[in-house]
Amino acid sequence: MHWLLRLYPRAWRERYEEEMLALLEQHKITPATVVDLLIGAIDANLNYSGMVEGVAGMVNRLRTSVVMVFCAFMLFGVGWSMLQRLTDPLNQFNAVATYHPEFRVLFDADFVAGCISFLAFLIGGLPVFFISLRRAIKRKQKNVLIAFWGRAIVFAGKHPCYGGIGELASCRVCIDTH
Where does the source fall among the domains of life (predicted)? Predict the structure, then answer.
């Protein structure tokens, strides 16, 4: 079994090889053990940094995962918002929806799913946003504050309901409310 441990990175072997050999001496070696060691070697070669991460490393990985989920949702939101422009011009969309009612059902189902996803994003993201904003204010990080307010101003300026570029009442919310 010593040959299987040679597949692990040098830093990993320096730290864990003796312990792993002792464990393997006490354990009956089965094909599942060999497969497990091979998968572990692949994982160690891809992910082992040689440092003990501890709680701080786990928190950083969790934080990175949360940020990646929010970034992925933002990309979904861009595509979803473009799909909502499908009804523009409205009279053409209504003509298609008259002949193909399943199209309107799918469009409305997508709209509802997108709204629910957006609300879930807000519920999960607003606490992160406010904590980040509070920390930036506390630490007087002007570059972070400018980034927060800059994005809010850009969003408000591009949405037709807020006086930005574009026709008034061209979005679905505007059509329903005006």
Answer: Bacteria
